[in-house]
């Protein structure tokens, strides 16, 4: 694992955290709020897990493999839910989640 | 500041985190979801700040005074919003927020 | 999974977070600091993961199984390291870690 | 407050979190560990507060002013301590802390 690979995964997690939180606050303002319950819930979940993963990588955690595997699952679940909705913030979030899942999958494979 | 006073404030923060998160997930399932937008947002905010404050106290942070002052503001805002709603989870949350605000106000006064 | 089982696991995580952070700040003050490098590092790691797990359970996360599995690994690693040292705070931490690992193992088995 | 100003402050917090955690793990490996006790403690403190601040900004927290004021204090304390040590990681951390304190001071002035 090179320093560059670490940095790419950290960046993907931080971008995903940001996209999830933007989608979270935007969804809470939408008219069709009732359709976005799972989206809001998974946005927070995924943002918190991505933030945790990013910091774990910067502090050289012994558990990066496990944390990145967890992050893959959260990102995939959030991408699947946000991908159902046509709001721009949902689509942008789904896209960031897919990129982050890919980066974390790679990291988990190397770190364990 | 005695060890007992610390423990009381830590416990108040953890109970408030729990009540806020219970209110958060319960609100996301309610029929009158649209009226609970601010409640949901402040639940998460307050839960995260309480969790942060509790852990800061257990690790003997140098910034307990400032963190507890922040926690007072978050708890007061969440109590004010949740107090407007008649759902049991909102009322229970408002009550936990008020107790936590009181404990944190005392801690902030001593810690700074 | 009953509400009581959840609460027992949340409590075990919060007690472990507390014991890890007490061991962390105590270790940083010890004379034989150089022998406690891994202890300090794993204390922080385990405290952060336990705090994350406790909050994830209170917000009804979809990923409680995975998060509790991660917590088992962190607790086992921290217990193994702290168990090597005779300081009271290390022994107390190792004990809290073992209890938390047991509670999280049970939770992970049911939640997945 | 423009979106660009937010982004600059978020980036400063994330870079500071990273520098603090790099300094933290590097300090724990140093020969002169005993001189770095406060450095290690403040590194963790500052990293955790910066991470919290960055995520609070991405989720549009109502408490950005207070959180950024807290971040200023943590960054100043960490910069003062790390600035005393000649290790490259300490100097780099002190520099990142000063930049983050400046960005957060600006944000706090506007947000409150």
Automatic annotation (TrEMBL), chains A, B, C, D:
<dbReference type="InterPro" id="IPR044543">
    <property type="entry name" value="YHJQ-like"/>
</dbReference>
<dbReference type="Pfam" id="PF03860">
    <property type="entry name" value="Csp"/>
</dbReference>
<dbReference type="InterPro" id="IPR005560">
    <property type="entry name" value="Csp_YhjQ"/>
</dbReference>
<protein>
    <submittedName>
        <fullName>Four-helix bundle copper-binding protein</fullName>
    </submittedName>
</protein>
């Amino acid at each position: 694992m090179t320093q560059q690979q670490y940095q790419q995964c950290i960046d993907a997690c931080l971008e995903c955290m940001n996209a999830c939180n933007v989608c979270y606050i935007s969804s809470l303002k939408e008219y069709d709020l009732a359709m976005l319950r799972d989206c809001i819930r998974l946005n927070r979940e995924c943002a918190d897990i991505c933030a945790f993963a990013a910091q774990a990588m910067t502090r050289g955690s012994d558990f990066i493999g496990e944390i990145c595997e967890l992050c893959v699952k959260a990102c995939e679940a959030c991408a699947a839910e946000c991908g159902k909705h046509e709001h721009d913030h949902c689509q942008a979030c789904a896209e960031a989640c897919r990129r982050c899942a890919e980066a974390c999958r790679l990291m988990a494979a190397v770190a364990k």
